[in-house]
Amino acid sequence: MFKKLIGFIIVFVFMQGSGMPIFGETERIRVGHFPNVTHAPALIAHATGHFEKIFGESTKIDWKLFNAGPNAIEALFAGEIDLLYVGPNPAINGFIRSKGEALRVITGVASGGAAFVIRSGAPVERFEDIQKKRVASPQKGNTQDVALLHLMKQKGLASRAQGGTVEVFNINGGDQITAFAKEQVDAIWTVEPWVSRLVSETNGKILFEEKDLWPEGKYATTLLVVRKKFMDEHPDLVRQWVKGHIEITNFINQNIKEAKEVFNKELQHETGKFLPSSYLDQCFQRIAFTADPMESSVQESARRANEIGYLGKNPVDLKNLYELSFLNEAQKELETEKN
Predict the structure, then answer these.
(1) pLDDT tens for residues 133-151?
(2) Looking at the structure, do residues 241 and 159 belong to the same domain, yes or no?
(3) Strand order in the sheet with 59-65
(4) How many domains does the chain have?
């Protein structure tokens, strides 16, 4: 009897540590996203119970909120989340830091939505004018931060930390509004909804949208990544999620008015604030929601991050960053169902 009890305890501990369901316990998928418009597919899916309907009672969906990519990647490293809507640069950095073991990109989410916004009254007419000025991005190492520092390097500018004249800060979310209102910074490279809010609430001016710097205006703003261990252990769940993601993306593009309303209600639920309709219209106009993984732009983002010293000294190898078999299977399945 004692040996049986010990055996039971060992099995229980092993199953608990591995994340396997224990004696009839439901499966669980832990999903991270940000309260950003570029993450609208996640917010709308959450609001409508889209994935709960797909998986049914056999699988519980735990939604977790983050404000910036680097913090979310740390949570993925810690095994606290299984799927994550995130920008390309945190995804790249996480892949490289883990030597390709931590994550895989499984589909695209959004393109566009980022811009360089100038504070009202700041003497900045062109990007080069940020010399001896104070500028900001949401968080060190995030996608907008890389874009800012890379363009600075292209223009022969450097931060004070690197011996230059530009003061670079990291200011996230609603604190960006305060920073403009109190004239703490002169410009911010940020993403929706903060672009529209800085323009509408603080009379900021968009100097340029990031899409102006990319061929054909296409670049990845948000990707969907999966924790590799979860992918290896639950490929069917991952495939179903990708299929559901394509469905919610199609819903947004085919029902834009309804999608905006659902998004805004969920945003208010998650942050306590909603976007006025004029803001929301501007946000959605600047963003394209797509499952396109945009590999070429992600490769370019990696090159830029490496150029500014964010990816270490070793050559960058992203050979296995993408795992698109789930996307290909889901697209074929949806096409078959349509016919």
Answers:
(1) 999 999 898 889 999 999 9
(2) no
(3) 59-65, 27-33, 83-86, 220-227, 103-112, 287-289
(4) 2
